[in-house]
Every structure is written in C-alpha cells, then in structure tokens.
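Q: For a teaching handout, I want to show students what a protein-ligand complex looks like in token form. Below are the inputs, and the small molecule is fe (ii) ion. Please produce the holo structure.
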Amino acid sequence: MTLSIQPLHPEFVGEVEGVDLTRPLDAAEVAAIEAGMDRYAVLVFHNQRLDDAQQMAFTRNFGEIENARGGNVTKPGEHRLPQGMNDVSNLGQDNQPLARDDRRRLFNLGNQLWHSDSSFRAIPAKYSLLSCRLPATSGGNTEFADMRAAYDALDPATKAEVAELICEHSLMYSRGSLGFTELTEEEKAAFRPVRQSLVRTHPVSGRVSLYLASHIGTIVGWPRPEAMAFIRDLTEHATQPGFVHAHRWRQWDLVIWDNRQTMHRVRRFDDRQPRDMRRTTVAGTAPTAEQIAA
Ligand SMILES: [Fe+2]
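A: Here is the structure, written as tokens, with fe (ii) ion included.
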C-alpha cells in the first residue's frame, strides 16, 4: 500500500488512500500526511475503524494533544470519553441523546457557527481530527472554508487594512450570538477573551490566511459595532461557495483539518438520534498575538 492523495476541491481538501491509521505509522507516512496537510489543509480518510486509544496515538504523530479543559460547559464527572478525547457527540454518559433543553446540547449548538477550534485559547489549536463512530441519520455535514483562498481574493486595500489587526475571541461571544448568555462565574472566568491576529502566515507553506471565527467579539482599538460589522463582512466573503467544501460523513471516516488555515461548521441534524463523533486536537505551539496581563 502506498499513500496517495486526490484533491476533492479546486482550492483545498484531499482524500487519502493507502494507509491504515489503526496501526503505528512510519516516519515517511507521517511526513506524507503532514505535507498533505500543508498543501490541502483538510484531509479525508475512509474506513478507519479507530478506537479512542488508536485515535490518540495517531494524533500524537503531529504534536501534543490539547488539554480540553475550559472548552465547554460539561461538568467534571459528566464526561463520556477518556481524557484527551473531545466529545462532539449529542450523547450523555448513558449514550442516549441529550434532552432538548439540556444545557450541554444548547452550548454545543454553537458548533453550527463558522469557527476555528480553540481560537478562544491563548495558544490556539493546530489540527483537529474528527472520527465518525456513528453518523447522523439525516443532516450533520461538516463544512470547511479555505481561509487562504479567502485571503488571496481580498482586494489590496482590505489586505492592508487587516494586516496588523488583533481580535478578541471567547466562547462567550459565539454562544452569546445564539442567545446562550447565562454563565456561571467559573465559566465566565474560563471563557475570558484572548487576543488573536486577524491574519496568519503558515509556518511551512508561507501562505497567508484570515483567522476568523464566530468566537470573535471585537477588534482591539475599534468601536465594537464597527468591528463586528467588518468581521461579519469578512466572514461572508470567506465562506462564499467557491471557498467551501461540504463533507458528508460515513461511519469510520476520519477527517483532519488545520485550524490555522480553515474554518468549519456542522450543519443541522436530527439530534433525537445518536450521532457519535469524537475529536482529538493537536495543540498549537505559540500564541498569535500578545495577551493582556491577567
Ligand atoms: Fe469545531
């Protein structure tokens, strides 16, 4: 078996064949996947029957696993999956769908907004790896947007305008935009805004991308409504159909995306039925902007 990658979209997204991710990979295979990520920013693998331990072992080929603490409203003792796994399912510990008014479900609806994982952390995520253990019975596609192509298509004046801008990101802002505003003091402290550059340069390819997310709540030094109008405008630009690819999940798909170069969102699905999706996240290595002192 040799690893090969076929493009699924004119700008980004590759489909990988010829590798079994349940087994330890050799250095050449890891290098080929990293190179594919640098080029395509999203890679799709089919028929990868991973368990949690195998998924975490595969993830560690690309860096440290991010500590998921502070990224949701699930309380200690409520977790369905082991440490190191992000539960992106609609399930409680009993493996049954969460009730319609369950706070965790309402919080997770924020995943239907365009975002980049962990942009609300001072050191944001590198890759996310999402394993489809059980797809939704209807709906539930994940859409990806290529933020490099979006940047390249900006006019020169807008490129100059965004070049030095710093945004504040928080889960409070993305959830607040859906009307999820009741947070405990502990959650407010965990969701304290962090600063991120609006433009990032990929360390290997040198390609420049817009670093957008629904977690953005303002641009540092701007009046807030002006900032949010501009961010909304940039987001509309960046998510136009030519920059977007929709992934329709099959059981045992694994999709990896680079959060530094893409945004994503899940589309509505029938969540009275189980949808079991499990994510591992590769931590980033450096902040994108200087933080305000605590
Ligand atoms: Fe996400």
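A: Two things your students might notice: The first helix runs from residue 27 to 40. The longest strand covers residues 127-134.
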